[in-house]
Amino acid sequence: MEKKVLILCTGNSCRSIVAEALINAKLDGVVADSSGVKASGKVNPNAKKLLEEKGIWKDEYHSKTIDKVIDNAYDLVVTVCDNAHETCPMFPKAVKVIHISFEDPDGKGFDAFIDTYNEIEEKLLPKVKETLGV
Predict the structure, then answer these.
(1) What are the pLDDT tens digits along the chain (134 aa)?
(2) CA proximity to 25, closest of 61, 56, 59
(3) What is the phi/psi pair of residue 120, to 5°?
(4) Which residues in 14-37 are b (16+ Cβ under 10 Å) and which e?
């Protein structure tokens, strides 16, 4: 049975979208969604470009607010920025919540997005696997 993960950030335009795509592409038996506590309503163009270059972009990825996913059942909620961690709502059906903060590449050059992608892949994916036991 697949494990469900929610990646929560402030704007849901960069870090959480990248984390969602990486989990969906690289972790067998795990399905990820993402949302923002104050969603921007758009995916950062550099984040989309990077995911396209890596071959893991899906058109279904989009910036959405927490109310779109609050009633879903998740095995794990991951906050990837300090603001989301501090304002993370209670998920009635979430089993576990973990926090791993990543620097926001928004407003920086494309290299910053590559760095964030690599950091999420190196730090977040093993932690999700460990926490979920997959």
Answers:
(1) 899 999 998 888 899 999 999 999 999 999 999 998 888 889 999 999 999 999 999 999 999 988 888 888 899 999 887 765 566 666 665 568 888 989 899 999 999 999 999 999 999 999 999 999 98
(2) 56
(3) -65, -45
(4) bbbbbbbbbbbbebeebebbbbbb
- Amino acid at the residue 2: E
DSSP-derived secondary structure for 76-120 = EEEE-SHHHHHHPPP-TT-SEEEE------TTS-HHHHHHHHHHI
- List domains and CATH numbers for the chain: 3-132 (3.40.50.2300)
Q: Give catalytic residues, as residue numbers.
A: 9, 81, 88
- Strand arrangement of the beta sheet that strand 3-9 belongs to: 30-36, 3-9, 76-79, 96-99
